[in-house]
């Protein structure tokens, strides 16, 4: 699936796969049972432009978190290429001035487990600044204050420990830490899923400001479709390790082409005070990535499935400018 | 109890009447009022949505009604919970256990916490039938298979003897619902039953709960932090904040003309699926610490309509429209929800 955004790729993924071998039990290996592989990400082509925010959605088990983690090299791709500004990710050193840690940062879902409980906020941010030599030692505290202001926290937060902060405040610290190294790209994995609605809105507004002012590209992984609609320029929909549809946010939400995207959108409860009188949109669960269905991966749950869907995997086809869907019968 | 009292209760339109329920957790130095003077009536056969953020007291409310709080919480109760003419808070533990096993059931957010991982699912579903329903193992087994089929588990005969680890989260939530429905409950509390699930599975579980309710006529209390979930399932909504009910009304009134600033704030702060990139209006600040609440409205420090009197005078739920109660001193100041 190709880039739809005109101004060139910040991140380019080419046929990326991330497979995990499953350990066999002693009995299975004696029986010479075949080795099994979880195909978490199974052939993804994706381009994310400079200053672009791409939303990645799909059910749990679709591979969206694995893909996000592969971008910061928590996992190494089994196959395929990932490039940052044209240079292969594998070629980047992890650390150092042009290292991956400086270029791509990640913000995690749970702000309670992603901060060191024994370090004050200032110490945590200062360590990052000094290690990467972002600024001279004398300027570290001024830079910490600037970062805290940027994420909407009072400067006094620097002296506090994570346990005295609320979930929303911790997530702001997580963002400040990501921004500290002045990255080119930030991966956000469910950044507001652990927060209450009223706090979620504060963080979403902050992310939107950062998106407009910090000039970084972002990948936003979220299961909450309304959050993605609110934040993203483009949206990619994943199912069982593949991107099944990608397009501009408006197009995906207003004219989804893939039956899976259509079902996902229909399944979201609306803020309309009217008792629902409809059956569930999709039957059954997402299949196991150990055992991916033949043909189109979605066919066992698809309301439109025909014979051809069981036999051959549909290629991604352009349904409108910049809008691709991998379906034999899109629309 | 005289028969007439029971009869009167059975013909009353309300299945449950909560009168001034206060639940206080007492520690050595702290007293936390997790529920403060709750008044709420639940109509027979209706669906009530209880919404609020974490710490608002919605789960404690269910657990207080069913007396499911652990002894370590050191909970003290005030008020009464009238169910079919009897005060649940005054029942002995054996009777309460029987009610919880039959007429009053609860399902929880994470189905794994209500299932024993080393016991076949089918046996867990039929346990209540054998213990409280007096069914023989054989009849309980048949009924268990019937229940699994009814909640949409494919080939229930084969899956009856499987263990929880063999099932997906959505299937386990179905199993827990089957367990609750097996005793034909009159009142079912569902505490965030779909929060841990994907939207497609949430959609299946909500459809299932509503279908079962329509078929059995039971009353459903749905606790959720998700306003959209309660919007499309509930007849009435109670909004909780800092351990209190701050607003209660029919679902339509809550969404079309909210009469409490907190409800307005919630509605303004959620991104809409059908609307693009407008800016959200968050509620400023943080929810209060329940251990140090002042005498006035707990929402006052975050409220844009508040005046000095809000943080000093005690506030009760009062009439703010037809069939609409709000705990706000100045409901007339509320402008409503941003379009």
Defining key terms:
heterodimer, A: 331 residues, alpha/beta, Rossmann fold, eight-stranded mixed sheet, four-stranded antiparallel sheet, 11 helices, 29% helix, 22% strand, disordered N terminus, B: 339 residues, globular
Average pLDDT level of chain B: 90
User: Could you estimate the helical fraction of the residues of chain B in percent?
Assistant: 25-40%
CATH architecture tag of the domain at 9-21 and 37-111 and 184-198 and 211-270 and 278-325 in chain A: 3-Layer(aba) Sandwich
- Beta-strand share of residues of chain A: 15-25%
Q: Which fold name corresponds to the CATH topology of chain B? A: Rossmann fold
Oligomerization:
heterodimer
Ends of chain B: how far apart?
A: 54 Å
Q: How many helices of chain A?
A: 11
CATH topology of the domain at 9-21 and 37-111 and 184-198 and 211-270 and 278-325 in chain A: the name is: Rossmann fold
Widest sheet: strand ordering of chain B = 6-7-8-3-9-10-12-11
Instruction: Tell me the number of strands of chain A.
Output: 12
Continuous helix count of chain B: 11
How many discrete domains of chain B? 1
Beta-strand content bin of chain B = 15-25%
Distance between the termini of chain A: 18 Å
Q: Into which percent range does the helicity of residues of chain A fall?
A: 25-40%
Name of the level-1 CATH class of chain B: Alpha Beta
Q: Please identify which CATH superfamily of chain B we are dealing with.
A: P-loop containing nucleotide triphosphate hydrolases
What can you tell me about this protein's structure?
The complex is a heterodimer of chains A (331) and B (339). With 331 residues, chain A is α/β, with parallel strands linked by helices. Chain A has helices spanning 26-30, 64-71, 100-103, 121-131, 140-150, 167-180, 197-213, 225-231, 249-254, 259-267, 307-311, and strands at residues 9-21, 37-49, 53-57, 79-84, 87-88, 104-107, 185-189, 217-221, 234-239, 242-248, 317-320, 323-325. Chain A has a domain at 9-21 and 37-111 and 184-198 and 211-270 and 278-325: Rossmann fold (3-Layer(aba) Sandwich). Chain A has 11 helices and 12 strands. In chain A, the strands form 2 sheets. Chain A has an 8-stranded mixed sheet with strand order 6-7-8-3-9-10-12-11, sandwiched between helices. In chain A, helix 6 runs parallel beside helix 7. The longest helix of chain A has 17 residues, at 197-213. Mean pLDDT of chain A is 90; it is low at 1-6. Chain B has 339 residues and is of the alpha/beta class. Chain B contains 11 helices and 12 strands. The longest helix of chain B has 18 residues, at 199-216. The N and C termini of chain B lie far apart (54 Å). Mean pLDDT of chain B is 90; it is low at 1-6. Chains A and B meet through helix 7, helix 8, helix 9 and helix 10 of A and helix 8, helix 9, helix 10 and helix 11 of B.
